[in-house]
């Protein structure tokens, strides 16, 4: 969607609705139209019954002759009401299926597209606002599709049908009602337009307020620790006040409009009655297609039609407000769907490989040997490069925002099996480098090569499959301990998950609860300590068994005693792998093959621990405590 020319929100929505239900939606519309037309036809039969009764009266009231005609008209009217009721019943049943099915498809499309968005999107948007797409915006569209659209269509068809009937019986009387309708529409446009503007603003403010609430709930411990309750309350009050103002103004105009329109409709009714009386009294010729003169048989049905006409117009106003809210929700949902997905121009794939006659070939079964499958289009040949974990950067520059460069001329290499540590103050660019290796972000200048292949040529899923990552902020999902470990590799067996837990040093605490590995975790691991959560994250990375590991403050949440328990497991986890380590605890990087010291996006030192200590540069000052990392 994102690369296509965007149509208006309404047009795009209708195209999607017809695409979702190409047969059901036209049938629903047809039944709604039939229901509206059938609902407007009784005014014709009312006119005919009055005309028959008037004629019978003028002819001396012969009821025996009149009764068959009246009963015939009443019978037809009853059939019409039954048909209208049947249409209503069927389209409401279909509408329930259509509405919920549409919302289901929208949620699926949004979630599927959201999964394709780059990390940058989630870094720059509040989670509460993103959640609002699936709750408030979907609900606003549900209200519009299930109630507002059908009622609006019924009202419009009823208005048009009754207007045609009125013009058929009397153009002059019809013009009186049209004049009143113009007044009603003008008032609706002026007041309803203001209401619609604030309803659209309200929808945006709901998302913003939910974002603030979600942020405050997630940070409740921090708020309490630093006694920021008043500041949090102030931030919420500002967002809530903005939501209140837009909601108040939207509903004030909407609630003002209905009484005004209602009273205008009463005035129209009076005007029709007065005009009909004057035309009858003055014996004004009746201009109509029916050829009927002005009489009680024309005027009385007109009074009923004027009420029905005005009532239908009155129903349009509140439905428009709901439609506006629904369209605002649909617009926000389309904004999410229009977000540019993560661009992936790669064509090199990671495949299972086997060695045949000294050459690598692709294997259908799992062999434990991986290779990069590189298709050369010009030669129409395929080569296989063994996955070794050789990562190199050449003259890399990067900026999250064009006006603020984060990394400057970064050149480094990590040979297979090497342990490379990044050291530096917060904001020096350590995590940014690992984000570039994962291609969470793409470099502005320079090159990154993985096993000699330009990293841009490797498909992102294949690239990330070859990388294991343990983040500073641990994320656990609702499910069992076993499920969370298996998240590293979904086809891992229970035995492999248990071995990974042992490797990470997590096996001991996992066995303590009665359910062991089947213990349910919820609330992002709220029933575990932060250190235990980190150990599970390490076990998850271990079961993935990738050739390259990125440990971003992997032991930052583990106390000294726990760190000693897990150190042997970490050593086994890193053995034979290329490892990038980010750590504030310099004790965790002493044994690295190379330590790279970063300062404001520049590499200022590199070497082993002993070499950097001997150089007595910034690393020496950091290690001896002359400077703090923060």
Mean pLDDT, to the nearest integer, reads: 83
Report the CATH superfamily of the largest domain. ABC transporter type 1, transmembrane domain
The radius of gyration computed from the alpha-carbon positions, rounded to a whole number of angstroms, is: 36 Å
Under the CATH scheme, which architecture of the largest domain would be assigned? Up-down Bundle
The secondary structure category is alpha/beta
Topology at a glance:
Elements: H1 9-20, H2 24-40, H3 42-58, H4 63-115, H5 119-124, H6 127-169, H7 171-218, H8 220-225, H9 229-281, H10 296-337, E1 349-356, E2 359-362, E3 370-376, E4 381-386, E5 391-398, E6 407-414, E7 419-424, H11 430-437, E8 445-450, E9 453-454, H12 460-465, E10 467-470, E11 479-480, H13 481-486, H14 494-504, H15 507-511, E12 520-521, H16 530-544, E13 548-552, H17 560-574, E14 578-582, E15 594-599, E16 602-607, H18 609-615, H19 618-624
Parallel strand pairs: 7-14, 7-15, 10-13, 13-14
Antiparallel strand pairs: 1-2, 1-3, 3-4, 5-6, 5-8, 8-9, 11-12, 15-16
Helix pairs in contact: 2-4, 2-6, 3-4, 3-10, 4-6, 6-7, 6-10, 7-9, 7-10, 9-10, 14-16, 16-17, 18-19
Task: Describe this protein's structure.
- The protein is of the alpha/beta class and 630 residues long.
- The chain has three domains: 9-19 and 95-337, ABC transporter transmembrane region fold; 349-386, no CATH class; 391-624, P-loop containing nucleotide triphosphate hydrolases (Rossmann fold, 3-Layer(aba) Sandwich), CATH 3.40.50.
- The protein is 60% helix and 13% strand.
- Strand 8 (445-450) and strand 9 (453-454) form a beta hairpin.
- The longest helix is centred in the first third of the chain and has 53 residues, at 63-115.
- The chain starts with 8 loop residues before the first helix and ends in a 6-residue tail after the last helix.
- 33% of the residues are buried.
